[in-house]
Amino acid sequence: MNIRHAKLFLLAAIVLSFLISLFENQINSYWLFISYDIGINIILAVSLNLINGYTGQFSLGHAGFMAVGGYTAAVITNQFGHLNLFFANGIFVVALFAGGITAAIAGLLVGIPTLRLRGDYLAIVTLGFGEIIRVIFQNMQSVGGARGLSVTHNYTNFFWTFALAALTIYVVTTLVHSTYGRGFIAVRDDEIAAEATGVNPTKYKVTAFVVGAFFAGIAGGLYAHSKQFLTPSGFGFMTSIAIVVMVILGGMGNTPGVVLAAILLTLLPEGLRALAGVEHLPGLAAEFPLSWVGNMRMIIYSLLLIVLMLTRPQGLFALRKLKTKNSK
Amino acid sequence: MTEFLQQLINGLALGSILALIALGYTMVYGILRFINFAHGDVFMLGAFAGFYLTPKIAKIFPTPSILSGLVVMGISMLICAALGIIIERFAYRPLRSSPKLTMLITAIGVSLFLEYTGQFVFGAAPKKFPELIPVYPIAQFGGLSLNSNQIIVFAVTLVLLIALRFIVLKTKIGTAMRALSFNPQAAALMGINIDLVISFTFALGSALAAAAGILFAVNYPAIDPLMGILPGLKAFVAAVLGGIGNLPGAALGGIIIGITETLVSGYISSTYRDAIAFGILILMLLVKPSGLLGKKEIEKV
């Protein structure tokens, strides 16, 4: 994306999502909910791309940040949802922001101790942090524990979802293309050389984690007010993997590709569901168990990952080859 | 006190199983410097191989008996060894010169593929593992109970550890493995067939994982295609705890994790059980990243 048009893009996207949201009542609610999922996944994938793609820190704990933001936002609107702040549903914006902030704090807590780790160690530790966050929510009886938390309000709508998705894309793109943000790429390409030229890798890594986690938290808030039900098991390892797959498929450090991948991979299970709805598919059993769709999706994800890594490690939609350090 | 000792015995049994899995991680890491994420799923496939083999073996040997148990374990070890070689050959070998991250992502892909293909083929619902080895209560004193299964776990683990030590230290291929982990380029120059040694390492690690799978299934008889995820991750933590790349370290780490986990779920809360291993991992990496028995690696530019 051309950086000079970034502000224009942001403005256009916000206006467009506002205009579409005016017709929200006329859109089939099935497609409306899928569109929310698309928007939420775009936020998640683009924010993870800042950590994984641009800064080169392989994180497998994004669902944990999403959980922190989702629970925070849900608790706030459950408590104060009847208040009208400034305008209708103003509390929703406050709740989303608060969710983002708490997730960012979680990102800071994860980022600082993991700085000295790289590559596969970092992946495992962030995975571990994600699991720890999940286990903590499972044991917090005040938010329902393992039973889950039901969210009273369905504040998520087309406007907020896509305006925030556009904001995420805008922030990540302009951040990375700014003079300051070139440091992220420097840290990814060669940490030692970056440090030698005066870039502080520690600062950049923590910034990436905090900004990435902030937007994951916002996505969590949107998710909470779209599904209206949160369970800790919904934010497990597999959710993180699904986001990672979007980033890898789109190409690490390639925002337009990642957005495209997020859209495609959200639509993929819907397509499979439609396929599974066909009563008699030639050559397959007449009845499909409900888990069939979920299973097929995961098998396709995994094959996609393996084949992609073997043939196009730079991602499906990357035009130029990604330069990564062949770290030892 | 009795309860504490009982927890200790249970923890030791769990720890032995984790140790067997951890050895596979640590061997592969020692040679290829990457985490074979799919290792936990080879453990799962070992258990499933046992599940499908037991009825067949029961036609030949009297089951449940120690003999049929050993035969089933041996065959599943062979199956998983072959599987390990196949995974390495088709998924990891083409990427050997790629960045480590590419290999890690591929490993995650292989892991997911095995899990969900497993769900597709075996079904997602947990299955009851057949009675393979007879269970006798061995000792009962003062409320403390020790059954034959736990003895078998200890015995099999011990035998496999000694066998592994023998292979690594005394045989030609073991020497080649150590040479390779020390310096791959030099090892290749000395005429070591790198591909063969790596295949052998995967076979060895996968066979140990299969043995662990059978032992796990005998002790906790509900098996499902996702059963490998958590033991796999915990075993990886065990390998890091002991110092990754270090064989005695992996065994020690497995036993420490097993005992800590059993004690925590016994005395504090069983719901926190799954977070314990990760907590230990984070603490360990902060305090002593090289592991308990690991050597400190100096970073070269």
Strand content of chain A: under 5%
The percent of residues in helical segments of chain B reads: over 70%
Radius of gyration computed on alpha carbons of chain A: 20 Å
Number of helices of chain B: 11
Structural class of chain A: mainly alpha
Distance between the termini of chain A: 33 Å
Content-based structural category of chain B: mainly alpha
- Widest beta sheet: strand line-up of chain A: 1-2
Q: How many structural domains in the coordinates of chain A?
A: 1
CA-based shape of chain A: globular
Mean pLDDT of chain A equals: 83
User: How many angstroms does the end-to-end distance of chain B come to?
Assistant: 53 Å
* Arithmetic mean of pLDDT of chain B: 88
Give your account of this protein's structure.
The complex is a heterodimer of chains A (328) and B (301). With 328 residues, chain A is an all-alpha fold. Chain A contains twelve helices and two strands. In chain A, strands 1-2 form a two-stranded antiparallel ribbon. Chain A is globular and about 55 Å long. The two termini of chain A are 33 Å apart. The model of chain A is unreliable at 279-290 and 321-328 (pLDDT under 50). The longest helix of chain B is centred in the N-terminal third of the chain and has 31 residues, at 2-32. Chains A and B meet through helix 5, helix 10 and helix 12 of A and helix 4, helix 9 and helix 11 of B.
